[in-house]
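re the bet — no i am not wrong, look at it urself. input seq straight from the record:
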Amino acid sequence: MNQGAHTIRKLRMEKNISIRKLAEMVDVNYVFLSKAERGLEKHGEDLIRRIAGSLEYKGDINVLIARFDKVPEEIKKIILDDPNFVTEIPAFFKTHKKLGGKNG
């Protein structure tokens, strides 16, 4: 099970919502959702967003999408709009760690 599926399952269980009920809420087959929650099927970004909305997920949706091993469309657009951005990311994080007082 990937981190995203684990997060969704945990949140669903905390809210005491069955797989069937959640499947109904997000308009997918419950068998598919059950398999997806166990990491046997892949979630699309749209479905991840619908599930997060239905479960009132409070975290960063882009982080949740990334936990499903996907690059959120929002992030893809940033990268494609400025391809040099990707090469600048490692330097940014090295600087960020130094400013935060963490060993890099």
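see?? The first helix runs from residue 3 to 14. told u. also The chain has a mean pLDDT of 86. so pay up
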